[in-house]
Amino acid sequence: MQNQNLYADLPSNSDAGERFDALLARPGLRIERIASLGQASPPDFWYDQDEAEWVVLLQGSAGLRFADEPETRVLQPGDWLYIAAHRRHRVEWTAAGETTVWLAVHFSE
Amino acid sequence: MQNQNLYADLPSNSDAGERFDALLARPGLRIERIASLGQASPPDFWYDQDEAEWVVLLQGSAGLRFADEPETRVLQPGDWLYIAAHRRHRVEWTAAGETTVWLAVHFSE
């Protein structure tokens, strides 16, 4: 029996943009792998999501900014956080030259 | 702002048994870190859970056995699987001499 692996089949070039893979989807719950290769949110773009999110960075690194915080948070492997619905945030940067892998759990509350 | 990290504050000795830390708990949803230091399920013990589980092994390694499969699955970092409610399973072994870290999402469906 072949296992499914979070680090398998990662994008190897940034031209295709970020990649989002749904690993599990149920009503009110979605587990997703996000792979970034140096991408950031577009200038002045803020995520403003209807659902809450629990997210962990597993590989690479990233700068995550909340609209209600003055400083960008630097995320290293293992760093996780809870993002309340409608708490505005953006990805300021992801590591260049390596694939940043996130695991996100989106849920209604 | 200090981030919370999945690999921080891991148990360093196996005498205390496996460790379970709830990272997020909501009605019908629980995200949990499990740290094992060589532990396995007791002989003839099978998990038989009322909730479904999505689980990924992030560090270390483990042997996971399903009652409905003849072979133990060997899990390496990044390997993930979905375990339906009441699908009986057990942990045959976890790596000796290092901490095995799992991230489990328990949910009702």
Tell me what you see in this structure.
The structure is a homodimer of 109-residue chains. The first copy, chain A, is an all-beta fold. Chain A is 0% helix and 49% strand. In chain A, strands 2-3-9-4-7 form a 5-stranded antiparallel β-sheet, with no helix packed on it. The radius of gyration of chain A is 14 Å and the shape is globular. The model of chain A has no long low-confidence stretch (mean pLDDT 94). Chain A binds chain B through residues 1, 3-8, 23-24, 26, 29, 31, 54, 56, 58, 69, 71, 73, 75-82, 103, 105, 107, 109, and chain B through 1, 3-8, 23-24, 26, 29, 31, 54, 56, 58, 69, 71, 73, 75-82, 103, 105, 107, 109.
Structure keywords:
109 residues; homodimer; mainly beta
Short description:
The structure is a homodimer of 109-residue chains. With 109 residues, chain A is mainly β.
